[in-house]
Amino acid sequence: VSLTVRIGQITALVGASGSGKTTLGRAVMGLKELSSGEIYFDGLNLSALSRQESRRYRAQAQLIFQDPFSSLDPRLRVGDIVAAPLRRLPGGAALRAQRVKEVLSEVGLPDYQMRYPHQMSGGQRQRVAIARAIVSRPRLVVANEPVSALDMTIQAQVLSLLQRLQREYGFACLFITHDLSVVEQIA
After folding, report:
1. Using CA atoms in the order 15, 41, 136, 180, what is the torsion angle rounded to 10 degrees?
2. How far apart are CA 172 and CA 167, in angstroms?
3. 117-129, pLDDT tens digit by residue?
């Protein structure tokens, strides 16, 4: 496969179950070792990055998982889940808390910091997953079938939210799905 995902765009990767969409997404995120080929980010070959460069890349690329039920740690509160990518952010706890509050408000979940995932619906959990992905202002978001576990009404809301956030933040988005109607809406 050969593709380009540009800043400010949503690029859809469509294919049948078992065709390798998730494997490619995991490889882009550095979670799957390549058996052949190369993946580049800003001209850098991801396979050849030093440890420090790899850490910098991971800070610029975030993943939204398919299943909002299993992708959130049930032992952590929403505020801690969303703050996780900000661990190394300079400025301390107050700055991190402010950023978490802003992002939760942006995804329509103000005042949800103290809730646990089991206290939320599937759509709310997916909004938390989106908030976690964008809180560090990444340049690339890989969205791996982020609406497949949601009913149609909630799917439309989450797709609209993702489009709005992508426009506001300007990140590149690789949107992985098997559903052509979703692609028609978002990419």
Report:
1. -20
2. 10
3. 999 999 999 999 9
H or E element at residue 11: strand 10-14
Give the DSSP per-residue string, 115-168.
--GGGS-HHHHHHHHHHHHHTT--SEEEEESTTTTS-HHHHHHHHHHHHHHHHH
Of 169, 171, 163, nearest to 146 (Cα)? 163
How far apart CA 30 and CA 17 sit, in angstroms, is: 21
Between CA 122 and CA 133, with CA 128 as vertex, the angle to 5 degrees is 130
Q: How many CB atoms lie within 10 A of CB 60?
A: 14
Judged by phi (left if over 0) then psi (alpha if -120 to 50, else beta), residue 14 lies in beta
Q: Answer yes or no: are the C-beta atoms of 78 and 115 closer than 8 Å.
A: yes
Listed residue (31, 103, 19) closest to 65, CA to CA: 31
| Other CB atoms within 10 Å distance of the CB of residue 146 | 29
Length of the chain in terms of residues written = 187
For the segment 81-111, what is each residue's pLDDT rounded down to a tens digit?
999 999 877 777 888 899 999 999 999 999 9
Strands of 172-177's sheet in order across:
10-14, 172-177, 140-144, 61-64
**Tokens standing for residue 18:** 């078992």
